[in-house]
UniProtKB/TrEMBL annotation:
Native species: Mytilus galloprovincialis
Domain VWFA intervals: 167-245, 254-393
Database matches in Pfam families: Lectin_C (PF00059), VWA (PF00092)
Ranges of residues in domain C-type lectin: 34-149
Name the UniProt record assigns to this protein: C-type lectin domain-containing protein
Length: 450
């Protein structure tokens, strides 16, 4: 079994829970990850399995997956995926069986026109019998009969990546200074655990409490079920005495926002990114008064909009951000140079940088240039300086999301504003507020229980 990652929570504010180990689907060993989802062509000893659309849906369901649901934004990847798997076409999870022309995905959600990729003169519903979709080797869509035995195509399934396995250690402050808040901490830990598969091959949970002296409440192998773990959380109680300075809460955070202003991007997308920045600033200053924010606009060169040391009035900063306009001249953005500039200058004490503050860079960009060794190298350099780099992508633009995941050090560093949300679509940016409040622990806390 592969070595498990150790994830440690120092605070009740949980910002992310992502691991780099992906569990494969039973019965299939050829799953491929792309933008947070897994894809596979179902195969047997003879190669790709070919079935009717109806049977393909059932086969994917048995794999705890759905039928392949590509969009027009995935065309380049789709073509390469079919080629890598030695197939020229395959079923996709769309149909209009209920209402002719009203195409829906296999899960019942509507297929938006902006996601469609129909071939020329398609769909044509030939002979009134074609109500299910398939994909050609050029990624164009076509409609075919759903359950005609003479029409069988390769079965392609997709599912969301499943995180794990991982060992999670909760460290809880039980000193008298937390009295009145311990129950809330237990509620949050319970909420997290109830959404995880618990077991030796999945997630294992341990709990440590501390006030003046740390102690282990239970280890990783003591409890093997969700019920037993969550019940054990109630074994912790407030203890007499102050919190030991082995773990100290820090709320200082210096954040630099990078806004791409190169001319060759849509005006709508640019305004959308400025709205996202406004939401970010409002949320950060509301959640943590100890945060400082600077902003840099860049194309082929970088210019300060405002530095960390500028006025902490959020309305003034938002007004300055909205005064930024696209370049008048068409030039290519130089993100690698901008990242280098930020690493050298933006966090200097003369510009308001604080030596003990958590340092974060957030990229708001159309990112048309795609993967670049230079950009990746600069992000690695910033990481070595303890400067975290996050990317923000707008919901429907898959190429931008793909480009981000190629340059960022981990997919958890990409914040995607969803296309649809029952609440504010910019709520994903609240994760940044969680990152600004954290605990710094002395190394001795980990030496107690090797």
């Amino acid at each position: 079994m592969e070595q498990k990652e150790m994830i440690v929570f120092y605070s009740i504010i949980i910002t992310s829970l992502l691991t780099k180990v992906i569990i494969g689907v039973k019965g299939s060993d050829n799953w491929e990850e792309h933008n947070g989802k897994l894809y596979a062509v179902l195969k047997d000893q003879q190669g790709a399995i070919k079935e009717t659309w109806e049977k393909a849906v059932v086969m994917c369901d048995k794999e705890d997956a759905i039928l392949f649901s590509p969009t027009v934004h995935m065309n380049i990847w789709n073509i390469d995926f079919l080629r890598r798997n030695g197939i020229k076409n395959g079923w996709i999870g769309i149909n209009d069986k209920c209402i002719e022309g009203n195409w829906i995905w296999a899960d019942g959600s509507p297929v938006y026109k902006t996601d469609m990729n129909w071939g020329k003169n398609q769909p044509d519903n030939d002979k009134g019998m074609e109500n299910c979709g398939h994909l050609h080797q050029n990624s164009a869509w076509n409609d075919l009969p759903c359950n005609e035995q003479s029409v069988k195509l390769p079965v392609i399934c997709q599912k969301y990546c499943r995180p794990g396995p991982a060992d999670i250690l909760f460290i809880v402050d039980t000193s008298t200074s937390t009295e009145g808040r311990l129950n809330r901490t237990i509620e949050i830990m319970t909420y997290i655990v109830k959404r995880l598969p618990i077991g030796s091959e999945d997630f294992q949970i341990a709990l440590m409490k501390y006030n003046y002296h740390p102690s282990l409440v239970f280890n990783f192998v003591e409890y093997k079920s969700v019920q037993s773990v969550t019940s054990a959380f109630h074994e912790i109680h407030i203890s007499n005495g102050p919190t030991n300075t082995v773990c100290v809460r820090n709320t200082e955070a210096d954040i630099i926002v990078l806004l791409d202003v190169q001319k060759n991007q849509s005006s709508f997308g640019f305004q959308y990114r400025k709205t996202a920045i406004r939401k970010l600033l409002e949320g950060l200053y509301n959640d943590n008064p100890n945060v400082q924010i600077g902003m840099v606009a860049y194309s082929d060169h970088a210019d300060y909009v405002f530095k960390l040391s500028w006025s902490n009035n959020v309305h003034s900063r938002i007004a300055a951000a909205f005064q930024v306009e696209l370049d008048k001249v068409s030039v290519e953005s130089n993100l690698s140079h901008t990242l280098q500039f930020v690493g050298v200058d933006a966090f200097r004490s003369s510009n308001g940088g604080r030596p003990l503050a958590r340092k974060i860079v957030m990229i708001f960009s159309s990112l048309f240039t795609g993967y670049s060794v230079e950009i990746r190298d600069q992000i690695l350099n910033l990481n070595q300086l303890d400067i975290e780099v996050l990317g923000v992508a707008k919901y429907h633009n898959e190429p931008i999301s793909t480009n981000y995941t190629e340059i960022l050090l981990d997919t958890s560093q990409l914040l995607v504003i969803p296309k649809e949300s029952h609440t504010d679509p910019f709520d994903c940016l609240k994760a940044v507020s969680g990152m600004t409040s954290y605990y710094v622990c002395n190394d001795s806390v980990f030496q107690l229980y090797p």
